[in-house]
Amino acid sequence: MQRREFLQKSFQYCSVAALASQCPSLFAEPSQQDKFSMALQNDPRLLGWQGLKDDIKPHFSSWSGQLPQELEGRTLFRNGPGRQERGGERYTHWFDGDGFINQFSLSKEGVTHQGKFTQTAKYTEETQAGRFLYHGAGSKVANPKGIKGPQSINTANTSLLPIQGELWAMWEAGTPYRVAQSDLATKGPVAFGADLQGVPFSAHPHHDADRSIWNFGDVSFGEQAAMVLYHLSAQGAVKRYKLVALPHHSYIHDFTVTDKYLIFYLPPMLRREGVTYMERFKWQASLGSRLLIIDKNDLSVVTTLELEAGFSFHFGNSWQVGNELVINLCWYPDAAIMTDVMANIQTGQHAKSYQAAKAYQVRVDLTRNRTRTVVMDHHLEFVQFDKRFVSEPSRYQFGITIENAKNNAEFDSIARIDTDTGLRDHFSFGQHASVEEPLFIAKAGHSQEGEGYLIHTWLDFKQAKTGLAVFDAKKISHGPLAMTQLPYYLPLGFHGAFV
């Protein structure tokens, strides 16, 4: 290199270095908030994860169409991650936002909506500090405080259980928070007793046919993999509990109930070193998945059965006929939805190709300890069923689906899947919609399976508005009976309750 050229390049380098020292923001790594803002400009679907900073005061929106009379005066509640940003920092995993409960009060004329953040210990502490203080389940923050246990980072952001005029706001690994149904005021954590204080209580409790409640909490630590099983009365009082060893560490989100058994699905997710809970799981397909079947009478493990490798968040209805168990769930061929898609939601990772969940059925021959599985043609998530038929043979599973089955397409429709025929009845809200979990409400005075209504919310990310719709569950493709849209949008959530 010639001396003059060398000096010129050196001068240019020194000028850049001097500029960098004087204006470090020009050369700094973009913040998570900046990354999200840039991604949102390119992909409006990310609006569902932008988050909120304040409660929402009551707002009325009128119906288009007519609400069935028997639903007048009733209320839909929905829970989900609401606060995604503090002090310029953003969470990177969808699971981590602070819990925000939406209340939709139905009347003949329309819907009154309001929403509030659940005042968990974490939310209160971080509000006072003006920043995130703890790593989330899947997100890292700057200068984190050490946690004393799962309750330190409990966001109460996943689902809701109506109990005696209250809502239990639940998260995967902490004690539920009590919230008033009337005004969404937080009343503090549920007290299960000294022995169960701080023990995880999962976000997916299930009612049995007698209305008692089953649930679990993963208490695995070190080399020991285990969970606590809960059996509660319909009023939420603890009837019994038991510590049960697991065959190996895994990620368990939900389970299902038959008249005799509790059934858990263990995907091949091994534990490894990692800062956050989610990054500790490693997918290892060669291990295959397992079904863990537990006797409800004495909470003993009946058997553990091997299945092909797969992943699942949610179960539908399950039952037993003779010596055969029939189990319905939403099944993914791998765990990319959790480890990759949800873990990088702020960068638009969800727009990349991945294989969405499909309706899946496992049949277990209890005599021979053999299984056979059927993957149906239809995508299905956030599955629901007619709860009058819990643990009884049924054919209809309700949930969200995809109009055109592309791997990276948005869940834009609600659907009924007939597991006997494989047929789907659905309604699409269009290419600019992200549809959320529909809840099934049985029609008064009707006894046949599926005679009822579906109620759900959806986000129109092009217009930046959230809508609510009510369908006849037997005539979904006919379109909504009643529908309304708020003049604002709400973050995409997970699960809800109808009271």
TrEMBL record:
GO terms for biological process: carotene catabolic process. Keywords: Iron, Metal-binding, Oxidoreductase. Fe cation binds at residues 204, 253, 314, 495. Its cofactor is Fe(2+). It comes from the Bacteria. Binds 1 Fe(2+) ion per subunit. One of its GO terms (molecular function) is carotenoid dioxygenase activity. InterPro entries: Carotenoid_Oase. Coiled coil: none annotated. Belongs to the carotenoid oxygenase family. This is Uncharacterized protein. It comes from Pseudoalteromonas ulvae.
